[in-house]
Amino acid sequence: MPAYLLGALIFMVGIVIFVMQNNIPVTVHFLIWDTAEISLALVALIAAMGGAIITFLIDSFRAFKTGRKLNELTKYNKKLEREITSLKAKNVSPPENKNPTA
């Protein structure tokens, strides 16, 4: 089981325990907005779901960028492989690297 799934499972168990122990009505105040009395469990679940959605969106964006970079590097690698094949066909040796640290 991947570590992130184990972490998510532990977090969800913690949320369930919190919900079961804190099922009292509360009023949520945020800036100038006030709610009617709602269950603290509902507030906790909404906050957890909001965090999960935000995390999913950020991770999706990161995965999209990584995929684009992978495609770009794969195309570049294929180009270099074609160049190597063409140079081998011409029997041309690659130039020597004068800077061994580069």
Explain how this protein is built:
The chain is mainly alpha-helical and 102 residues long. The chain has a domain of 63 residues. It contains 2 helices and 4 strands; from the N terminus they run αββββα. The strands form 2 sheets. The protein has a two-stranded antiparallel ribbon. Strands 2-3 form a two-stranded antiparallel sheet. A hairpin with a 2-residue loop joins β2 and β3. α1 packs antiparallel against α2. The longest helix is centred in the middle third of the chain and has 50 residues. The relative contact order is 0.06.
Q: What's the number of extended β-strand segments?
A: 4
Radius of gyration, taken over Cα atoms and rounded to an integer in Å: 27 Å
> What do the pLDDT scores average to?
84
Distance between the termini: 40 Å
The biggest beta sheet is recorded as: 2 strands, antiparallel
Shape category: rod-shaped
Number of alpha- plus pi-helical segments: 2
Helix content, binned percent: 55-70%
Order of helices and strands: HEEEEH
Oligomer: single chain
- Strand order across the largest sheet: 1-4
What percentage of the residues does DSSP assign to strands (E)?
A: 5-15%
Q: Segments where pLDDT lies below 50 for 5+ residues? A: none
Structural class: mainly alpha
